[in-house]
Amino acid sequence: MRSLSSCLVSLLLLAASGARADSEILNVSYDPTRELYGDYNALFAKHWQDTHHEAVTINQSHGGSGKQARAVIDGLEADVVTLALAGDVNALFEKAQLVPRDWQSRLPNNSCPYTSTIVFLVRKGNPKGIKDWDDLAKPGVSVITPSPKTSGGARWNYLAAWGYAQRKFGGDEAKTRAFVSAIYKNAPVLDAGARGSTTTFVERGIGDVLIAWENEALLAIEQLGKGQFELVAPSVSILAEPPVTVVDAVARRHGTSALAAEYLAYLYSPEAQDLIGKHYYRPSEPAAAAKYASQFPKLELLSIDKDFGGWKKAQATHFADGGVFDQIYVPGR
Questions:
Q1: Quick check: helix, strand or coil at residue 247?
Q2: How many H helices and E strands in the chain?
């Protein structure tokens, strides 16, 4: 397995041995995309060399999506960001005007070249009998999930649980709060990012169930611990839409606007979409989506816009300082 460190990883991708890199960009991404972008960068470098006759260096930075967005706002020189949720990219506009207000309209599918969802990963044989969100709120069940204060994936986790509880309790706010609070009371540790939580569960052996990105769960089952884990699809989850964008202010300063734009646009190519499916993300292109459909569980998916009023509202209500999450989660309780 590749290093799980969230520090900057530099991938020198040259078209031929000894060639000089003529251009360089930095992709600041969220936690579980290391393997995907490691392979995609090589694919794109060949495409750029073939079409522009120029070698390219692509640097990667990975961590919790919210933490990564703050790093870019604070000065991390990202030419592009490929983050876990639109709310984190919106912050680049709202707090630093690094991207335009309409950044999401520049690429297909609201600038989301792939989607995912939230599932459960349990140990072989599912010893605690985990079937749905109710089981995560039971006493004696140890739940592993990252912190929604720093991780985009954790915010998807939280909202999926919240949406399930809203349906279960007919919109009763007090009962929904108590249900979600019980899940987080069962969490012995909240890692900063999704990959950190995967490490806690898979490598450190802590916890009975991991609330995970679908791609992380499938990666763990197929590559990190074959035969040791099982995927459980809850009855209700959420459509996770990780967006991408050029960080215009930085790319203009670096003179990389055209390179950065093509780096993201090429994610929609048939070759890239096939690679996306191989890495257990749900492709947006219909042919690739159909090719890989059988590897994904079928489940009912909530929508951030329809069910939560969009990311601006969800962020302010649940994850801002003093919001619902801060009210229901007491560390060490």
A1: coil
A2: 16, 13
End-to-end CA gap in the chain: 34
**Strand-strand pairing, 209-213 and 143-144:** parallel
Average pLDDT over residues 278-301: 96
Could you tell me how many residues make up the chain? Answer: 333
The DSSP 8-state label assigned to residue 313 in this structure reads H
Q: What is the pTM of this model?
A: 0.90
Confidence of residue 305 (pLDDT cuts 50, 70, 90): very high
**Encoding tokens for residue 204?**
């450190």
- Within 8 A by CB and 6+ apart from 226, the residues are none
- Residue 28 Cα to chain centre, angstroms: 12
pLDDT of residue 332: 61
Query: Per-residue DSSP letters for 25-85?
Result: EEEEEEGGGHHHHHHHHHHHHHHHHHHHS-EEEEEEEEE-HHHHHHHHHTT---SEEE-S-
- Reduced to 3 states, what is the DSSP secondary structure of residue 109? helix
Residues 110 and 16: their CA atoms lie apart, in Å, by 36
Q: Does 9 have pLDDT greater than 60?
A: no
Phi, psi (degrees; rounded to nearest 5) at 37: -75, -25
Q: Which residues contact 47 (CB under 8 A, 6 or more apart)?
A: 266, 269, 271
Confidence band (pLDDT; 50, 70, 90) for 35? very high
What confidence category does residue 330 fall into, taking pLDDT thresholds of 50, 70 and 90? confident
For residues 8 and 102, give the distance between their C-alpha atoms in angstroms, rounded to a whole number: 29
Q: Which of 46, 15, 59 is nearest to 256 (CA)?
A: 59
Task: Supply 108's token pair.
Answer: 């297909």
| Mean per-residue pLDDT, 94-119 | 98
Euclidean distance between CA atoms 225 and 257, whole angstroms: 40
pLDDT for position 13: 41
